Amino acid sequence: MGRISLPAYHTKSLWDNLQVNHDSSQTNMEMEKPDPYPVSFTELVRGLLADQFVTHRFRLIIGFLALISVDFLQLSIPLLVKRAIDLLAGQEATMPRLFTLAGAILAIATAVVLLRFVWRMLIIGFSRYLERHLRNRIFDHILAMDQYFFSRRSTGDIMAHGSNDLAAVQMACGMGMVAAVDALVLSVAAIGFMIYIHPTLTLFALLPLPFLALTTRFLSARLHHRFNHVQEEFSRMTEFARSAVVSIRLIKAYTHERSQVDDFNRLGRRYVHANIRVALIHGLLFPASTLIGNIGLLIVLVYGGRLVIDQTITIGDFAAFTTYLQMLIWPMMAVGWVANLTQRGVTALRRIHGLITSEAVLIDTCPSSAMLPGSSGFKATDLTFAYPDSARAQLSNITFEVESGIIGIAGKTGSGKTTLCKLLVRLYPVQRRELFYGDRDVNEIPFEQLRSQIAYVGQEPILFSDTIRANIGFGTDEMSMDKIEAAARDADIHNEILEFSNGYDTVIGERGITLSGGQRQRIALARALLYDRPVLVIDDGLSAVDTATENNIVTALRRRFSGKTVFIVSNRLKLLSMTDRILILEEGKLVDDGSHQALLEKNNFYQAMHLKQMQEMEGLSHA
Length: 623
Ligand SMILES: Nc1ncnc2c1ncn2[C@@H]1O[C@H](COP(=O)(O)OP(=O)(O)OP(=O)(O)O)[C@@H](O)[C@H]1O
Ligand SMILES: [Mg+2]
Known about the structure:
21 helices, six-stranded mixed sheet, 9% strand, ABC transporter transmembrane region fold, binds adenosine-5'-triphosphate, elongated, binds magnesium ion, 3 domains, alpha/beta
């Protein structure tokens, strides 16, 4: 009498699921931290999941119907086998009868295959839609956040929300829900059939199973923990390798190869150790569940065998009973597993909720209908600003008025030049009546409108791993090549671009060419010029270009921005001498404001800077 190996499938599917769980819980390191966002479970579900469940209700209903049908079809197979065995034992079996039974089993098996396909497509598909929906909400929210938000949260933290937390929610709402429903239906029905065969035997046979649930819960929690550790070690190792490759010149220059190899070896050993700890749990989980399952089987063999001898139940009953018992192993393991998945899913959902309900400090309170002033001038009156969590003000009582023209901003490092630029482009909040664009308080102009007036080149040029054309035309698909070229010409980079192998289609960055610092700056500048906005703010964006290039660029700026305003941060005398007016900052205060000539005559900092740069120039020409 061959044993029907249906339960083996279930064990296999659990195994697969645990594997999937690993993959999706990559570097899920922060999961087990105490929950920092106290929100009720109902609130979470209502706020983040409910609409998706409603939208996809038909998909879910059909999916779960398919899942439940699979369960019942599987449960009917032992009944057919029981029938066959009883026929054989009672000498009533004929070939046609056996063929009929075999045909029925084949039909059921085929239906199971099809229906399993259906539920997987529908329910796991749902969990992916849900994941996408949440991911978009997170992304949407992040883009609406201000600088404060990004100074409070690290990129790694945001990325963890975007990958691990979403994966945990997807897992709980996909495989988690499937396993919960499947386990419930299978166990209730299998126990029902078992009770129908013999209630007392059922009671005895089920005794060991709760231990199975507890063991799985305990071990799968451990497994998750240890697997996170593997991921941590893995990312540590890859990060080490990455930074070694990136800084290979530094390593060689300081002859640190040996120590790097030793460190890498140490990390490798830790990674192996972490993996062995995972293998230990894997090694325990399945043998332990088989053992507990087999204890039940042992009881059935002794007590059930006795019932067959006493002719209380038939041999067919006995065979069906053992099959049902085996079928219960998976649901019992699933209980422990689902509990862990749910717990992780809820924690992740809380963190996502915390993220997308965080509010920006810089809030746009203006009606979007507010009109822009006609002029491109700025006026600051006693402008004072402190970064959050900072004890002192980074800018204090800055007062100036600019109608148009090229305005230099100079000052020692840390004097507040970048901070002033960031306030001009509205990256941080400013007090009312301290900063005006045209004749209007910047607080009365909607962000989008004000920002659409200003092009900004930050201190560190930001380029994407994309073509030069895409980098200059950033975010403007319809921008014509003529305009891109004109902007590149004005930024004095056009000729260099043409020298690259693919011209404007050359890819920059990791898998493309490496640009010099000056080239990066000028591509960032070209991007700003392309927008053709009334105000341009360049934060030290020409620090790495030579004097001739500087000259060309300023000439082009004069032409492009006649009647408009350009702020340009620099400490280079040559560049500053070409501006109309220079603001000098010192420790957050505006200490002087005048033309190049005027400052040369009266400002100490400016004179010292002049002297130093003249000496440098002479030093160069003597060399
Ligand atoms: N996000 C921030 N949070 C807190 N303090 C900041 C922040 N950014 C800058 N600071 C501080 O503000 C002061 C002015 O910095 P800022 O970047 O404006 O100087 P800078 O004049 O542009 O200097 P550099 O010439 O080196 O670019 C410095 O003391 C700096 O430490
Ligand atoms: Mg700066």
